[in-house]
Write a structure and sequence with these properties.
With 389 residues, the chain is α+β, with helices and mostly antiparallel strands. It has helices spanning 7-12, 17-26, 38-51, 56-65, 70-73, 82-91, 95-111, 201-209, 250-255, 284-292, 295-307, 318-341, 349-357, 366-369; strands at residues 125-135, 144-146, 149-159, 164-172, 191-194, 213-217, 224-230, 239-247, 260-266, 272-277.
Amino acid sequence: MHQGKLVFAQLMLYLPLSTFRRCVAEHNGEHKVKDFSCLDQFFAMAFAQLTYRESLRDIEVNLRAQARRLYHMGFRCQTISRNTLANANATRPWQIYADFAQHLIGLARPLYATEPFGLELDATVYAFDASTIDLCLSVFAWAPFRSTKAAIKLHTLLDLRGNIPSFIHITDGKTHEVNVMDDLNLEPGAFYLMDRGYLDFARLFVIHEARAFFVTRAKSNTKFKRRYSHPVDRINTPVMCDQTGVLTTYQSRKDYPTTMRRVVVKDDAGKRLVFLTNNFVLKPQLIADLYRQRWQVELFFKWIKQHLRIKVFFGTSENAVKTQIWIAISTYLLISIAKKRLHLDDHSLYEILQILSLSMFETIPINQLLAPPSTNSEPDFEPNQLALL
């Protein structure tokens, strides 16, 4: 199927082109465009992500060096200049690539639906958090954060089965994380893991009313009145108490008028951790273990910041920045999809990305490229040839 195709072209075969063209048409992305299509723009920016390009000039130089191979990579333009790419990033609606990324999320998540995530739990488990990307205020004035700096926030709801983002929202640095909870499409029966920054009882009650579950940390000033205490094993587990009760301050009780569960555990360092949840079925130790899985979203942010180009931007406008981020996310999803469809479960995404980045212009099928070296192959030389006479 992939014999003779460049590795880059093989990877791009997993793009649903009809969906991409529909996204372009919905946002009128190619109005008055003659040569450099939105698909060419996507390919150029995806190439930059996959090969760690540092600037528009870097992209231009590398693709011009491969001018004879552009058609075989999937490009339909004759050449790519940094000015053309910069103009496309600045003017073509970033919503094209946001909508397309959402479609890729819909393709990737079912592939990882049975993926284990460290706990024996059949329900869908999400970790919700935000990561800040610092910017220069004088250059990115549209993204205010503090008096002397700009920033954007990447709000992400991560499905822990496969670490696939199911929801992503990009805001300026001033937007508080808790406000983005209003945009979540809550799934009944699912668990939502959040840190103390999301401790808003009115919004937690919305999760409860949606028949979903939350697990979060209590703040030091959270007032809780115990109604029932459940037996716990303090000798063999780190659980100190498991209680059912209600919030006691006027505003908290108004925002969350029903009972809540409070689980207190002691971590390995002896620190006392207090968890709040609306799930009354799971064992208290599992509640604590669930919250620890929230760390996966932190690792996700660390991964994409280290291995994708979302900290250094090729343009300074809001449209250019969001376009670059959404294409970076699409690249991450594309590799995740290819990993499953090519049955590369023995390789991490990092390994796949590293090998692909060095092999973009090879014509070896990707699954062969990532196959372990054969132990039965004969050496190309005779050992005696190395012997000194």
